[in-house]
User: Which sequence fits this backbone?
């Protein structure tokens, strides 16, 4: 996982790809938790927050591009 300053440097397409990858990882962790394979409550919370950071930065970049036009 990247720091917020590293996320800001990424392009819109890179952020979208990163969101897809992190969502898949998050869903896998949630599924494993339900089946009691792993109990990683903290990691699940971190994944959720990281996905939210990515989405926030993506929306900022999209809105900036719209306002520039």
Assistant:
């Amino acid at each position: 996982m990247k720091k917020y300053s590293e996320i800001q440097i990424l392009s819109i397409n890179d952020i979208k790809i990163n969101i897809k990858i992190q969502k898949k990882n998050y869903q896998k962790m949630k599924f494993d938790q339900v089946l009691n394979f792993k109990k990683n409550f903290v990691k699940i919370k971190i994944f959720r927050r990281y996905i939210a950071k990515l989405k926030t930065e993506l929306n900022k970049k999209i809105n900036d591009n719209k306002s520039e036009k």
Notes: Helices lie at 4-9, 12-34, 41-68. The radius of gyration is 14 Å.
